[in-house]
Amino acid sequence: MAKTALITGITGQDGSYLAEFLLKKGYRVVGVTRRTSTSNYDRIKDIVDEIELVQGDLMDQNSLVYAIRDAQPDEVYNLAAQSFVPTSWNQPVLTGEFTALGVTRMLEAMRLTKPDAKFYQASSSEMFGKVRETPQNENTPFYPRSPYGVAKVYGHWITVNYRESYNLFAVSGILFNHESPRRGLEFVTRKISYAVARIKLGKQNKLQLGNPDARRDWGYVPDYVEAMWLMLQQDKPQDFVIGTGEAHSVKEFIEAAFAAAGIPGWQTYVEFKTPKDMRPAEVDYLIADSSQARQVLGWKPKTGFRELVRIMVEADLKREKNSA
Amino acid sequence: MKRTALITGITGQDGSYLAELLLEKNYRVIGLVSQKYNIGWQNVEQIKDKLVIEDGDLLARESLERVIKKYRPEEIYNLAGLTFVPASWDQPTLTFDINTLGVSRILEIIKDHSPQSRFYQASSAKILAESQDPYSISKAAAHGLVKALRKQFNLFACAGIMYNHESVRRGPEFVTRKITLAATKIKLGLEKTLALGNLDAKQDWGYAPDYVEAMWLMLKLDQPKDFVIGTGQLHSVRDICQIAFSHLGLNYQDFVTIDQALVRPAEVNPPVGDASEAKKTLGWQPKTSFKEMIIKMVEHDLKELQHG
């Protein structure tokens, strides 16, 4: 019989790729969405007929109980969150409600209605923030630097706590930045690939960015959703750090993007300025040590940095060519 | 100086029409959305460059306080909410948290930080109905709060008790749009039949762009006052089918089937909006007839389906 997976955040970047991945593996996929009169289904428009959507909200305990009780999932992926770090300073309480307490509500719903399901919590490298050691592994202490990071630390520990207290198969994947053509335009990688495509097509001629020297460990989402799935196929629940182990600067991303589009002399187009959405507190040098994932899960990233940049630029070129 | 208006629910049907009206009247329009980087833009696509979009959520008091203190808007229109009645049975707690407590959160902030702001609450004619659902009760409680806080704290807060109002931006789960979409798809050969419940169920259906004008007019009065907004006419589900299908050169009886699962008991005396007070005091009356509205919706759906 086909396995059933329940995904929160299915309309987001990771959720949409994970849904596609699980459909290919023959899963029945149930997505939890918040009810709004105008939904953003762009990322799942190609698979919307193959999945089931149920209403639920991480703010609303009962809706989650019903969703899990009715779907009877074998695997639960909690990917929903208020995920843009700068926004978390504008909405710190809501971020806590949604991104932190929402995890407890999901775990409670699962414990009460389907305790034998396997639970994946989307944790984040933002939990390392002001890093205690480099690179970061599963034992590196957390030091979050934003309300988002703090909320994610809560989500991580409550997942561990439910595993140890109730003997649930609940794991936390500490994923470093992961990008794709479905990344929102507010994130720096997509902002660059989008602008480069538009510059190439003569639709704009300037790109304004913040700190060119900020460095991140950037991977490709389809590789990362496979790691999520692998974590739930193990005999024992265990948390993993997932990343490429390579850090690149914003400047390198820009260079690679302009090169991928075949535009020489990127300096003519790019201006560095302190952004409006400046983080009150920056995170440090984030770089993943995912040797445990390599050993136990047999997982490693398949897509290199330049390849990732090329995929993003080409997707934006295609999209922008087709739009007026 | 430009007047500033804050709209919650700006990406919805009413919010987007109201934003267009206020932009025409040269307002600075601030739209509150729960996640500004992940919203359905379809209704505000044409005007999005003219709007100021802010993150905020009726569930999060601090986000409302931040935005209201930042702009101290002359007018605040609270149009956000969980609005689909059947869904309120699945999420009664959330329905109350958003539809009722959301209103008290905004009113408290107005009282403490921006008492000169004028506040419009989207009340619903469903608050007058006899048998109620969590949606209607949440709206009735919000309506009561607006009246009570207005009196106690001398706020300019008022509510429009609006009957159903439809448009091309109505969600496909509502019966008017469900019919115009299905009729169009049948015309284009994309679907064969349309299953409906009770064809004789009657409602007072108006046109949303007419109704948002009433909201704006209400905030122009010297004293805050609540108004009933409706067309005063009842039409049946059958009327919608008749107009929609015949506009496409089809006979609805050839395509509409009755699904017992969708049948709900018809109300003996369906409520009908008496907007005579609005006509007298606001000079407001509906401009668009029922038939014109359904035809507009059909033509929109036809154009959209033909051209993607």
Automatic annotation (TrEMBL), chain A:
One of the GO biological process terms: 'de novo' GDP-L-fucose biosynthetic process
Gene3D superfamilies from the UniProt entry: NAD(P)-binding Rossmann-like Domain, UDP-galactose 4-epimerase, domain 1
Entry GO MF terms: GDP-mannose 4,6-dehydratase activity; NADP+ binding
Cofactor: NADP(+)
Class of enzymatic activity (EC top level): lyase
Reaction(s) the record says it catalyses: GDP-alpha-D-mannose = GDP-4-dehydro-alpha-D-rhamnose + H2O
Keyword NADP in record: yes
Residues of the NAD(P)-binding domain: 6-312
EC numbers: 4.2.1.47
One Pfam family hit: GDP_Man_Dehyd
Classification via InterPro entries: GDP_Man_deHydtase, NAD(P)-bd_dom, NAD(P)-bd_dom_sf
Keywords: Lyase, NADP
The family this protein is said to belong to: Belongs to the NAD(P)-dependent epimerase/dehydratase family. GDP-mannose 4,6-dehydratase subfamily.
Role according to the record: Catalyzes the conversion of GDP-D-mannose to GDP-4-dehydro-6-deoxy-D-mannose.
Protein name, as recorded: GDP-mannose 4,6-dehydratase
Lineage: Bacteria, Candidatus Chisholmiibacteriota
Gene: gmd
UniProtKB/TrEMBL annotation, chain B:
Pfam families: GDP_Man_Dehyd
BP GO annotations: 'de novo' GDP-L-fucose biosynthetic process
Superkingdom of this protein's organism: Bacteria
Reactions accelerated catalytically: GDP-alpha-D-mannose = GDP-4-dehydro-alpha-D-rhamnose + H2O
Gene3D superfamilies: NAD(P)-binding Rossmann-like Domain (3.40.50.720), UDP-galactose 4-epimerase, domain 1 (3.90.25.10)
Domain NAD(P)-binding: 6-297
Protein task: Catalyzes the conversion of GDP-D-mannose to GDP-4-dehydro-6-deoxy-D-mannose.
Protein name in UniProt: GDP-mannose 4,6-dehydratase
